[in-house]
Specification:
elongated, disordered C terminus, 13 helices, single chain, mainly alpha
C-alpha cells in the first residue's frame, strides 16, 4: 500500500511540475511571436499609402505579377486576416472582397492590427484557421514589388498572431482542466490593450527601439506581470 501511495504521489507531483513549468514558460513563449508581430506592424504602419492603393486599385493593377500562385496566396492571406480579426461582414462580401475593402481604409486597417487581441480569438477559430494561416505564411518570395512586400509583411503578422491565439487557447483549456485558476488566467486574458501595442509603447513607440535599448527584455514589455512585478490580486511576484 505504501508503495502504491508513493507511486500516486510521484505521478501527482509530475503533473504538478509539468503545469508549473508550462505556466513559467508562458511569458517566453509569447514574447517572440509578439515581437514578430511588432516588426511587421512597424513596416505596415509606415506604408499605409501602399496598403490603400492595393485595396483601391486591386492586386491586378498594383502587383507586377498576378498569376495563379499569387492569387492563391492572396486568398489565403485574405481568409486568415478576415478570420483572425473577426470581421463580421465576411459572409456578405466574401473574404477577398472584404479584405480589399479593409485595405482601402488603410489607417483603420493598421489600427485594427495594432489593437487586435489574440486573447479574444475563439478556440474554434484558432483550430479552423491554423492550416490556412500556416499556408499563408509560406508566401514569402511569392509577391514582387513594393505592394507585394505589403502582403508579405501582412502574412508575417498573421502567423505569430495565430501562435499567440493558440497559447491563449491553452490557458482557457488549463482553466477548464483545473490546472490554472480563473484569477490567474484573468491576468493573462483580461484587459483592453493588445500585447503588440503594449510592447510598442514600452519600447518608446517604435520597434527599432529594441536595437537601442538592448537591456530591455521583449518578454517583460508584454505586461507588468511578465516584467516580474507583483500580481495586484495576490501581492506575489510571478
Amino acid at each position: 500500500m505504501g508503495g502504491a501511495l508513493s507511486l500516486t504521489e510521484n505521478i501527482a507531483c509530475g503533473h504538478t511540475d509539468k503545469a508549473t513549468l508550462w505556466r513559467s514558460l508562458l511569458a517566453d513563449r509569447l514574447s517572440k511571436p509578439t515581437a514578430d508581430m511588432v516588426d511587421a506592424l512597424v513596416y505596415l504602419r509606415d506604408n499605409t499609402a501602399m496598403i490603400a492603393e492595393l485595396g483601391e486599385r486591386g492586386p491586378e493593377a498594383t502587383l507586377p505579377r498576378y498569376g495563379t500562385k499569387e492569387k492563391r496566396s492572396l486568398q489565403l492571406i485574405a481568409r486568415s486576416c478576415v478570420g483572425l480579426l473577426g470581421y463580421e461582414d465576411r459572409a456578405r462580401d466574401g473574404d477577398l472582397v472584404l479584405f480589399q475593402k479593409k485595405l482601402a481604409q488603410a489607417e483603420q486597417f493598421v489600427e485594427d492590427l495594432l489593437t487586435f487581441r489574440a486573447q479574444t480569438v475563439p478556440t474554434s477559430t484558432v483550430a479552423s484557421l491554423k492550416t490556412v494561416v500556416q499556408a499563408a505564411d509560406c508566401c514569402e518570395g511569392v509577391f514582387s514589388g513594393s505592394h507585394g512586400e505589403v502582403l508579405t509583411q501582412l502574412a508575417a503578422f498573421l502567423r505569430p498572431s495565430l501562435i499567440c491565439a493558440e497559447i491563449y487557447s491553452e490557458i482557457r483549456a488549463a482553466v477548464a482542466a483545473g490546472t490554472m485558476s480563473e484569477d490567474e488566467a484573468a491576468i493573462w486574458m483580461e484587459g483592453t490593450e493588445s500585447d503588440q501595442s503594449h510592447m510598442i509603447n514600452a519600447m518608446g513607440g517604435r520597434r527599432d527601439c529594441f536595437e537601442v535599448q538592448e537591456d530591455l527584455n521583449p518578454a517583460a514589455s508584454l505586461s507588468p506581470l511578465l516584467a516580474g512585478e507583483a500580481d495586484p490580486r495576490t501581492g506575489q511576484a510571478f
